[in-house]
Amino acid sequence: MPASRPRPLVLLHGLGQSPIVWQDFVSALGAARPMNAPWMRGLRPKDPVGFDLAAAAAGVADDLDLQGIKQADFLGVSVGASVALRLAAERPELVGRLVLGGALVRPSKGALRMQRLAMRLVPESRLVDAGVSRPRMLAVLDALKGFDGTESLRQVTAPTLVVAGSKDRAGPAAAQQLVSLVSGAELSVIDGAGSVLNAEAPRELADVTEDFLSRG
Fold it and tell me: pLDDT under 70 in the chain at which residues?
């Protein structure tokens, strides 16, 4: 695709985040590429409490259809990465390239339990400032109980970059497993970053994203 008209980049936020979290990433990436950071269905402030991965993916696809966007690149973290993977498997014509950080593919009960505990410990004022709701975040974790998206990964044909932070204890190993399941996927580890890449290392994430997307 000509450099003068790159595909739009859709930014899908993670658990406990709102679209505003992408502000530093967008500044680092620059204005050359159109970007869109939507709320996902089930996480928007006025949505009923409850979350469904398929519905969230369909909502993103509907938003792009309304904008007349036939194909876009996707960058997702946490549950946003899982939504991007769902779209890549079910709507491959809509997905150009994928950049994934911390995708929740087959979360263990222990990992979900730890995330629930961490979510309960976040001060309410911090959640309000971020524009997110604790009940909605807990509903996402409930929806992921027993979820196993490994089989659908084999349907993903989009060029894929999996990104992990070196300080994320489980991140690199989980990312390597994801790379092994998605045909042709690549792995990039950001030194010194933890699990929340778009908030902790937005410039570094922008650098590896731009390098990957510029190839196609």
Answer: 1-4, 107-112, 114, 117-119, 121, 124-131, 146-147
SS3 at position 71: coil
User: 48: Cβ–Cβ under 8 A, 6 or more apart, which residues?
Assistant: none
Q: How many angstroms separate the Cα of 160 from the Cα of each of 37, 99, 182, 183, 204? A: 19, 6, 8, 8, 17
Which residues on neighbouring strands pair with residue 187, listed in sequence order?
162
Contact predicate 67/81, CB 8 Å:
no
What value, to the nearest 5°, has the Cα angle with vertex 11 and ends 7 and 14? 160
**All domains of the chain, ordered by start, with CATH?**
9-213 (3.40.50.1820)
CA distance 106 to 117: 19
Amino acid at 7: R
pTM for the predicted model, two decimal places = 0.86
